[in-house]
Amino acid sequence: MGLFNNIKNLFKKEEKSEARELTSIKEDNFEKKINDKETEDKKIELYEKGLSKSRNTFVNRLINLNNKTKKITDEYFEELEEILIEADIGVNTVLSFIEKLKKRVKSENITDLNYLQEVIVDELFIIYVDNSILTNKIKFNESGPTVLLFVGVNGVGKTTTIGKIANKIKKSGKSILMVAGDTFRAGATEQLVEWGNRVGCDVVVGRENSDPSSVIYDGITKAINENIDVLLVDTAGRLQNKVNLMKELEKMNKVIGNLIPGAPHETLLIIDATTGQNGISQAKNFKNITNITGIVLTKLDGTAKGGIVLAIKEELDIPVKYIGLGEGINDLETFDIEKYIYGLFKDMM
Predict the structure, then answer these.
(1) In this predicted model, what pLDDT tens digit does every residue of 204-263 receive, in sequence order?
(2) pTM for the whole thing?
(3) What distance separates the 2 farthest-apart alpha carbons in the chain?
(4) Which neighbouring-strand residues pair with 11?
(5) In whole angstroms, what is the distance from residue 17 CA to residue 35 CA?
(6) How confident is the model at residue 15 (pLDDT cuts 50, 70, 90)?
(7) Which residues of 68-103 are buried (b: 16+ CB within 10 A; e: fewer)?
(8) Where are the alpha helices (DSSP H) in the chain?
(9) More confident residue, 87 or 348
(10) How do strand 320-324 and strand 332-334 relate by DSSP bridges?
(11) CA pair distance 53, 255, nearest whole angstrom
(12) Which of 214, 234, 21 minimizes the C-alpha distance to 147?
């Protein structure tokens, strides 16, 4: 019956097929298959655990609404609307969604509440996957260093996220260099250096209050000379003066592009999921002044409003590339829409 059942069946099939495969594969591939399965199981478990707050509020309220309702009425849609808005999906998105759902209920003559529950999940995630080509993959440079530029307001976990992504990319076998381009916030450079020590990579730093672009210039020069695979660049997180921030980012982009044509290859905006719609407002501001290619959504495990993923897609049309599902160094996951659906709606499957 659409996306909901496809995801439900997918995870059931994976469990059965893996059990069969593990009994028939050759001995020399057995350990690799076991490790792959354990890694995948850990990722699924991380999504389940990380989305538990959202699942225990949003989804349980959805289940309770259907359990107490005997027929589909205007009151049902009003309460559903309230549940969706409180899940931080966004008012405009919810109003449009409710109208679409009402039309589908009428055209298909839907009266079965269990079926309607599945339709709701289907339609919610059509918001994310329909009529768009969104990728969670990082665009790596085919020749020379790949430059990832990180932007976001102070306090969203930007520096920590850079450290976690550095750790993730380094584990894939690529060499890493970090650049402390946030030269204004007290402690920002020290925090990034600490992450560099933890991950095991160099960090290019400048003097306090020095020109960020000059630090970035030094970092790119070092990356080119030392054949570094990936350069991760931190930036200042001030939105107090949009004009100054725009000029600062323009200068950074110009310096980066002059040294490595086509760079930065990704500009990733860090949003704290616990800030809800305020995070969407931040994203709109940054989108107006620079080319955002992807979102990193931190602290998703700390909020009951997991619907913000849908709001980001609907209001910004920018792909979520990573999500933070815990405080550990390995608790940053490449965004996977199927695992997200499973983690959020597991109690309905």
Answers:
(1) 999 877 899 999 999 999 999 999 999 999 998 765 566 788 888 999 999 999 999 999
(2) 0.88
(3) 70
(4) none
(5) 16
(6) low
(7) eeeebeeebeebbbebbbbbbbbeebbeebbeebee
(8) 3-24, 27-50, 52-54, 60-68, 74-86, 91-108, 113-129, 158-171, 188-199, 212-225, 242-259, 277-289, 308-316, 337-345
(9) 87
(10) antiparallel
(11) 43
(12) 234
Spatial distance between the Cα atoms of 308 and 275, rounded to a whole number of angstroms: 10
162, two tokens:
């850079």
Looking at residue 7, its amino acid is I
Task: Give 315-338 as a 3 state SS string.
Answer: HHCCCEEEEECCCCCCCEEECCHH
> Cα(134)–Cα(283) distance, rounded to whole angstroms?
17
Nearest to 326 by CA among 16, 50, 1: 50
Amino acid of residue 213? S
Place of tokens 């704290």: 272
Residue type at 230 in one-letter notation: V
Query: What's the confidence (pLDDT) of residue 22?
Result: 47
Scan for tokens 């309607």, then name that residue.
116
DSSP state of 230: E
**For residue 147, which of 246, 201, 228, 250 has the smallest C-alpha distance?**
228
pLDDT for 19-62, tens place per residue? 555 455 555 564 555 556 668 888 889 999 999 999 999 889 99
CA distance 299 to 88: 15
